[in-house]
Design a protein that fits this description.
2 copies of one chain form a homodimer. Chain A is of the alpha+beta class and 393 residues long. The first copy, chain A, folds into 2 domains: 262 residues, 3-Layer(aba) Sandwich (Aminopeptidase), CATH 3.40.630; 113 residues, Alpha-Beta Plaits (2-Layer Sandwich), CATH 3.30.70. Chain A contains 10 helices and 16 strands. In chain A, strands 1, 2, 3, 4, 5, 6, 14, 15 and 16 form a 9-stranded mixed β-sheet that branches. In chain A, strands 7, 9, 10, 12 and 13 form a 5-stranded antiparallel β-sheet that branches. A two-stranded antiparallel ribbon of chain A has the order 8-11. The longest helix of chain A is centred in the C-terminal third of the chain and has 21 residues. Chains A and B meet through strand 8, helix 6, strand 9, strand 11 and strand 12 of A and strand 8, helix 6, strand 9, strand 11 and strand 12 of B.
Chain lengths: 393, 393
């Protein structure tokens, strides 16, 4: 289901997303779940547990996609959750706690400048001011909600009480190459990396590429090139820190003009906030040294900051023991990408199960996970729920 | 005279340029010169010499500008030539040879993808195929010529016979910071640098900035950054070689995506073709080593190649002796920018006189040359013509 012919684009609150929500809701009801759609568009299908009033284990992910997306990011986690609930029903296993299959709204944040919208609304951490954010056409988020039959006034009512959620399990494609590189089908996410994003402005002096001798130049791009290498180097010594310059623009940008100004971004991520903070401080002084030596202006503007989220040791342990029962190897890794689990961590323990994906490719039509790996993920989810239920007090 | 209100834009064959040509032509005639406009738009004002049938010394530059230009580039050289002829008349000095004040058409090459159009037409080195080149609106050069009352069919008739030109003297602002840096008003151009331009394509692998560990990356921008520094380094040891990366584009260019592809330009210039060729070969092997080490694809595409032009020793010597007579210091330098003199060098000896400009700024409204420096340039031109006339056999 796509908003565009020929490629997959399922933006939250758009026609294809509404259709997908309706389809999955129907499947949930066929599976005997009681469904509801909250005010922001989070779809929840619930089966009560053996013990009345027990909290719910949430399992799921999201149904929205980026533009020209792959078929696995998000939707795989929702369908695995639904399949796990169906499988438990087939085995006539009813956990002590309630189970909720969740499809969060707007994980990707493509249309409006805000992401994890549904999961943050459920966690009660979403600032209602986001309702005033506008898309490219000037439509507000509140208007988009209304247009798809939802109720922006009910936003605060999306928040769940911490006591009613036992935990959240999210299965998701890895979106990276680590599991494939190591020949392992599944990985347990031990933490979701914290991130810092900066915009860096380097100011030199433009000039004619033919007439200004090298010694009289203040070339903003040559300086920025040294800085790009400093960013790369800042992550070289650390196992889990990653550092990226993804965007870089040169002004004026003519073949025969010495660049007068360069603007680039830095994206730093680590599962350890202290490691990220230290790397950032070191990097800042490296960039300042480069700018000073080359007589360049330098400005660093923070544009995003999110702390790391550790996955819950007890949930991770249950996932690990489920794998042992199934004869699968243990492998823990860090999620460098953000996920709904990050938001839900504010109100409940969370853990994630990563599924190997081909070439580490994601947000692309070439995104692929093998059926056998998906089956293994389903088995682990089912076994984990069984284990958690056995131990639930 | 400008095509645009509020800024100076005088594109060849446009209304402001036509008006400027008419004005200067009028001034030439007031000065007693016989004027003609050739088929491509070169304006020539001629005064015969004392000796009938003697060849002409050409003095001048161009009247067209870039978009949002300064007031000195090109036009200064035309007006200095006219003023020199007027000054000689005032002093009642009539050289043995003929004098021609020349205003070349289309030095800048802004509207059509070809530059030095008028001077190359006069040198007989302009491929008539340029008449088919189109501007952004699809108008051909031939149509543009016709629209301004010129005759594209006469293009080959613009070529002058080598024997009828004694030499060409061009005064021009330096368009660089060297004279100002050294506190000298005027410089003699000993050579116009040759140039090589390349487009470089670096191919890595795009990926998620959070999920791909540093050791598994093939980051096209980190590789390109090393290459930019190699380009800069290639010119560091050489006094007169300059090397510039003026344009650099990153794809896909998102803050959270490892760059998969980078495209950048290299502009290499030197007054010594051998030096440039050697630097290019060294640079090529540096870039190949970087690409190999980082497992990146690399493609170098030449986009421009022009050999250096040496100025004529006899004309340079006359200019230098004129300066000595006027008590001015000798200073020789290289022109890193291209000029009409480059084209005329194909059929006659050429030399250039550079006038200091403020901050080395050119192609910008802030372009400026001091009146005292311009007066000095006029005196040198007049004295040089007197000297050449004294020695003319």
């Amino acid at each position: 289901m796509s908003d565009e012919p020929g490629r997959l684009t399922r933006l939250t609150w758009g026609p294809a997303w509404c259709e997908a929500v309706g389809l999955v809701r129907g499947w949930m009801e066929e599976a005997g779940l009681a469904t509801r759609l909250d005010a922001v568009g989070n779809l929840v299908g619930r089966r009560e547990g053996r013990r009345p009033g027990a909290p719910a284990l949430l399992v799921g992910s999201h149904l929205d996609t980026v533009i020209d997306a792959g078929r696995f990011d998000g939707v795989l986690g929702v369908l695995l959750a639904l399949a796990a609930v169906e499988e438990l029903a087939v085995r006539e296993k009813r956990p002590a706690f309630a189970l909720e299959v969740v499809a969060f709204a707007d994980e990707e944040g493509v249309r409006f400048p805000c992401a994890l919208t549904g999961s943050r609304a459920m966690a009660g951490t979403l600032d209602p001011a986001v309702l005033g954010l506008t898309d490219r056409d000037g439509t507000t988020l509140a208007e988009a909600l209304r247009a798809s039959g939802l109720d922006p006034d009910g936003l605060t009512g999306c928040a769940r009480k911490p006591g009613e959620i036992l935990g959240f399990l999210e299965a998701h494609i890895e979106q990276g190459p680590v599991l494939e590189h190591e020949g392992v089908a599944l990985g347990l996410v031990r933490a979701i990396a914290g991130a810092t994003r900066l915009e860096v402005l380097v100011e030199g002096r433009a000039g004619h590429a033919g007439t200004v001798p090298m010694r009289l130049r203040r070339d903003a791009l040559a300086g920025a090139a040294e800085m790009v290498l400093a960013v790369e180097r800042s992550a070289r010594g650390e196992a889990e820190l990653v550092a990226t310059v993804g965007r870089l623009e040169v002004l004026p940008g003519a073949v025969n003009t010495i660049p007068g100004r360069v603007r680039f971004t830095i994206d730093l991520r680590s599962p350890e906030d202290r490691e990220r903070t230290r790397a950032l401080a070191d990097l800042r002084s490296d960039l300042e040294e480069i700018a000073r030596r080359r007589r360049l202006g330098l400005r660093l503007v923070p544009i995003h900051e999110a702390p790391a989220v550790a996955c819950d040791p007890a949930l991770l342990d249950a996932l690990a023991r489920a794998r042992v029962r199934l004869g699968l190897p243990d492998r823990r890794l860090v999620s460098g990408a953000g996920h709904d689990a990050m938001a839900i961590a504010a109100i409940a323990p969370v853990a994630m199960l990563f599924v190997r994906c081909r070439g580490g490719i994601s947000h692309d039509p070439a995104e692929h996970a093998a059926p056998a790996d998906i089956e293994a993920a389903l088995a682990v989810l089912v076994e984990t729920i069984v284990l958690l239920s056995e131990e639930f007090r």
